[in-house]
Amino acid sequence: MKLSIVEKIGFGAGDMAINVVIIAMQLLLAYFYTDIYGLSAADVGVLFVVVRMIDAIIDPAMGVLTDKLNTRWGRYRPWLLWFAIPFGFAVYLMFITPDMAYMAKLAWAYGTYILMTLVYTAITIPYISMIGVITSDPVERLSANGYRFVMTKIAAFLVTIVVPMLAVWLGRVIRLWAISFRWA
Question: Which residues form a coiled coil (predicted)?
């Protein structure tokens, strides 16, 4: 089956959305945990290793689970529907900073980062696997994946270039607004 350009862009847009979050985390999470949330760099390093070890077990398990589940909506689509909102909520929880004792903060970081990783796995493994059922034509699969990778690069550009520029601009706007109301 031949895929339209709109379908290929739509397929790529899914990866773009996921990668905006993941690239932001890769660039900012260590800084956030150490400089904003106040965790030690050693604790954050151990956290990252522990979560990657959990992820190394969960990813293949999710692959097996998605291959075995078959619903009236298909094999992969339900996972995207079930976990889209929890993914956003897990990311939100990961970046809030409840004021707690140090060990409670560390437990919060572990809990929210592990939760986000589990939900991320529940979305990305089925999403990446969908290409096998979208079309049986290997040339179309290759083309759709090409669109997916282009959208990933756009996400990287947005996070690394546009977001910092927007943050500086918004910081100025908010500062001017605060000064005009004498809040600063």
Answer: none
User: For residue 5, how many C-alpha atoms fall within 13 Å in the half-sphere facing its CB?
Assistant: 0
Cα(25)–Cα(160) distance, rounded to whole angstroms?
Answer: 11
Question: In the chain, how many domains are there?
Answer: 1
CA distance 150 to 156: 10
SS (H, E, C) 77-129: HHHHHHHHHHHHHHHHHHCCCCCCCHHHHHHHHHHHHHHHHHHHHHHHHHHHH
Q: Are 139 and 100 in contact (CB under 8 A)?
A: no
Instruction: Give residue 33's domain range.
Output: 5-180
